[in-house]
Amino acid sequence: MANYDVIVIGSGPGGYVCAIRCAQLGLKTACVEGRETLGGTCLNVGCIPSKALLHATEMLHETEENFGKMGIKVLRPDVDWKKMLEYKQDTIDANTKGIEFLFKKNKVDWLKGWATIPEAGKVAVGGEVHEAKNIVIATGSEPSSLPGVEVDEKTVVTSTGALELGKIPKSMIVIGGGVIGLELGSVYNRLGAEVTVIEFLDAITPGMDAEVQKTFQRTLKKQGMKFVMGAAVQKTEALKTKAKVTYKLRKDDSEHQIDADVVLVATGRKPYTDGLGLGPLGVELTDRGQVKTDDHWRTNVSGIYAIGDAITGPMLAHKAEDEGMAVAETIAGQAGHVNYGVIPGVIYTHPEVATVGQTEQQLKEAGHAYKIGKFSFMGNGRAKANFAADGFVKILADKETDRILGAHIIGPMAGDLIHEICVAMEFGAAAEDLARTCHAHPTYSEAVREAALACGDGPIHA
Ligand code: NAI
């Protein structure tokens, strides 16, 4: 048994960042993790492995589609799936070991095992009870299930199973046209599988800017993905080597069936707090099973905090990281703060999709007078040279003050480009501030400047 200032439960991006920041602020800190490796869903079975497969298959696509156009002759590339999975695993290992190194460097103790909280101020792990002045719940989320859908992680899989399929399927049905479905659907589409996305709503990626949604879906269709929209999945059935999906079209209630080698269930995630003992402790949850917190991530039980996917807000690693740092600072007596108005969202498909701040639809609903500055990558020299001219940058600014209210990008490196706009928004910048900032030529970032110019007197290259 040891005494700690802080015990963080869970070592995903929220938990490990929180633990390191606590230690940096002079607090004696431990982090509990039951997996064999640190890093949580993100590093082990989420963001990092999916990005490895997205990168590998994007390279494959680039080789097949564009090398010839640039005068590079290659034989038809051949995929060694086992080797690709090894590359994915090596990427995971490098990252999870990195966290282990950072824990040692910062003197964060890794308590190995699954934690329960027998009472406020105490954390039990593997038969030992440790005392902690502060406890941070950072236990993340797990795939949510659908009634009638039975996941076996072989034929009917969640994102976890989809990252380690025994072989490349010839066909795949993706239930849910959200982030996971479209990222992993893209991976298998590029590997030659016939991918059909079944989405309940009439648009993919709910909550995104409607223009981006349309362009995104059109681009994915051009790449070969099929979509069944406005369809509610009823059930899945395992056949001998395939799985059958039954869905109903919402417009006429008609029932349809399709089958595929693999079915990926990507209909959202839910907070994971099993086994912590929150019920007997009296920690309040929302009706969606999220741990209820106040503005300083405090639960209703003194000394117990919660962050990340386990609480409300977007289920994003970087949102959890920011909360992890802020809660560490709060515990250390500083003023931890997260600006929830400036949390970017990125979809790592090709092209990438990135968004921050408000959408046009949100501004309309709020009756906020706005102006739009839009610029197509067709007018960007670098994008044209790189066969990456599909998409646009759209900046929304206050009609009167020119202050940037949101930005939505679909195009090359959108996930990196968005951050210049995030920084601008953090500083309360106007579109004119971006437009007057010199941007190196030729870069994709010039498209951001042109969109900012489009909020004022107009872009140059359109
Ligand atoms: P999601 O919430 O993004 O999308 C789920 C989709 O499934 C929605 O479009 C919904 O309308 C649809 N759906 C729900 N029930 C259905 C049914 N019965 N039939 C047909 N469609 C149905 O959830 P997703 O993609 O599973 O991701 C989970 C979480 O993980 C999200 O919060 C996401 O932001 C996060 N994530 C973020 C990533 C990133 O930032 N790049 C990558 C992967 C996950």
Short key terms for the protein model shown above:
alpha/beta, Enolase-like, domain 1, 3 domains, 462 residues, single chain, binds 1,4-dihydronicotinamide adenine dinucleotide, FAD/NAD(P)-binding domain, 5-stranded parallel sheet, 7-stranded mixed sheet
Summarize the main sheet. 7 strands, mixed
Distance between the termini: 67 Å
The dominant shape is globular
Helix and strand content put the structural class at alpha/beta
Strand content: 15-25%
Number of discrete helical segments: 14
The CATH topology label of the largest domain is FAD/NAD(P)-binding domain
By CATH reckoning, the class of the largest domain would read Alpha Beta
What's the architecture of the largest domain, going by CATH?
3-Layer(bba) Sandwich
CATH superfamily of the largest domain: FAD/NAD(P)-binding domain
Low-confidence stretches at least 5 residues in length (pLDDT < 50)? Answer: none
Q: How many strand units?
A: 22
Bound compounds? 1,4-dihydronicotinamide adenine dinucleotide
How much is the radius of gyration in Å? 23 Å
- Helical fraction equals 25-40%
Would you tell me the overall average pLDDT?
Answer: 97
| Count of distinct structural domains | 3
